[in-house]
Amino acid sequence: MEDRSSLRPYRSEYRYDLLPDLVVERIFCYLPKRSRYEAAQTCKAWLRVLYFPALWKTFTLREKTLTRSRFDYYKGPQDCLSHILTKACLKRVGRHFRRIKVQPIANFLNLFEFMGLVDSYIKFFVEAEVKGEERYPLPHLVAFEFSFACQIRNRESIRVFGTGGKILETLTTLLGSFQGLKELRLENLLLDRFEAPTLLNSIYESCSESLVNLSILNCAQFNYYWMHCGLFLNLRCLTVSANHLHTDLIYLVGNLDKLAEFHVVQTEFTRAPVVLTYYDWEPMRTTGKSIRMFLEARGKTKEELAWQERAPVFAVAYSTPYARLSPQTALEIIHQYGNTLTAYCQFGLPRFPYKRNRPFDSRCDSQLLLMVRTCNRLRTVVIHELICISTLLLLVHYGKDHLRELYVRRNAVLRRDDWKSDSDSLTEEFKAWLRLTSKSYDTFEEEISRMWGKRWRALSDLEFRQLKLSHLEM
After folding, report:
1. Beta-carbon contacts of residue 110 (< 8 Å; ≥ 6 apart)
2. CA 325, CA 364: separation in Å to the nearest integer?
3. Of 10, 362, 385, 472, which one is least surrounded by beta carbons within 10 A?
4. What is the reported pLDDT for 271?
């Protein structure tokens, strides 16, 4: 007969409801919000951990966040923002928010209602504070990020348009309600010439002394600049897109006492980038302050950067999968920024035609070596293109006086020596060393480690994908 003891329900020997709160909190940090809700239904102990402050430092508004499905007679089932859920969320965990992220949302009605509810929630308690009953309901909020869904794909084409009207009015009203905000990011608003001037009026009135990090990307459809960017006295990092540059803005930015970083960014939505002349950048060069200027390409743009004439560029960074170092680009960088360039970076994995048997002349080896030998201040190089081992060895050899950081993908390193035409400038012993070292990945990593006096290795694709500009030591 069958043993009935094997049919008894399994009983765990562990009491998961008795786990320490810190352990459960750490587990919840790795779970998406929906999984946290489901896990919190198991016991009261886990439900209590759900409302811990560490789990609500960042609130991200996505397409289906705080929504309920409702049936529309014309469109069918629709995800509509639930006012009850939004109010309950703000009441229970709103005081723990340190950062609010509004990602691109196609449902503009949900976006409009969410910003209106947050603004009403803040104003309700601020008015009560005057009467001595309550205090500011978001005391720990220091960052706000807003990105508008300016691109919609149809079956026929892709439409790009900007915002304005009631959404812009609600956004500016919400920005004016914030207190003590330190970081603000606005992206892809694409405002017209009549609505753009009022974008930063409210935030300047409420957070002019507290704002430290300001990012304004593609907030106008045309070439427009905001004087407000140079009036935040405690600003340390300013990021603007290339179509928001102006001579007056550069003059104000150059006179900010605490500014440390100035980023000029281009994306696929940047229209008609502005190129300033050598004399326009004079306030940045003669200010006597250590302001680091970055030229960046982000997103999925395939356009080359707009080279600012003889600007004091500290780093050139590409965060786009289509970045390639062409001979024209290398010569332009050397000519414009050869005396100031400290870093050249290509982040992310490439998406252009990728063939390991590409000829040597169509790769970036020659251009990269020319940059390292010419730019005497170049300390950091991040490259995601194909490159052979002998080129990496030559980079470290010729850049031994100034090159300190080199990041490459192991899958993009070619185990070969392609420097045949440079035989006149190299000794036979050195060429034999290049040929021998180029035959093994382990050998060339050991040689570079020996030449630099520290441990060095090529990165995997996963490690390289996680690499960002803020992670580098420059």
Report:
1. 67, 79, 80, 81
2. 6
3. 10
4. 86
Burial class of residue 405 (count of CB atoms within 10 Å of its CB; 0-12, 13-18, 19+): middle
Rama region for 457: left / alpha / beta (φ>0; ψ in -120 to 50; rest):
beta
pLDDT, one tens digit per residue, over 328-371 is 999 999 999 999 999 999 999 998 766 777 788 888 889 999 99
Please report, as a single letter, which amino acid is at residue 461. Answer: D
Confidence of residue 184 (pLDDT cuts 50, 70, 90): very high
Check pLDDT > 70 for residue 288: no
- pTM, to two decimals: 0.89
Residues constituting the chain: 474
460 pLDDT more than 70: yes
3-state DSSP of the chain: CCCHHHHCCCCCCCCHHHCCHHHHHHHHHCCCHHHHHHHHCCCHHHHHHCCCHHHHCEEEECCCCCEEEEEECCCEEEEEECHHHHHHHHHHHHHHCCEEEECCCCCHHHHHHHHHHHHHHHHHHHHHHHCCCCCCCCCCCCEEEEECCCEEECCCCEEECCCCHHHHHHHHHHHHHCCCCCEEEEECCCECCCCHHHCCHHHHHHHCCCCCEEEEECCECCCCCCHHHHCCCCCCEEEEEHHHCCHHHHHHHHCCCCCCEEEEEECCCCCCCCCCCCCCCHHHHCCCCCCEEEEEEECCCCCCCCCCCCCCEEEEEEECCCCCCCHHHHHHHHHHHCCCCCEEEECCCCCCCCCCCCCHHHCCHHHHHHHHHHCCCCCEEEECCCEEHHHHHHHHHHCCCCCCEEEEEHHHEECCCCCCCCHHHCCHHHHHHHHHHCCCHHHHHHHHHHHHCCCCCCECHHHHHCCCHHHCCC
Q: For residue 432, what pLDDT band results from cuts at 50, 70 and 90? A: confident
Output the average pLDDT for the chain.
87
Report the C-alpha gap between 119 and 169 in whole angstroms: 12
What the block records as the tokens of 248 is: 């007056």
Q: Is 416's pLDDT higher than 90?
A: no
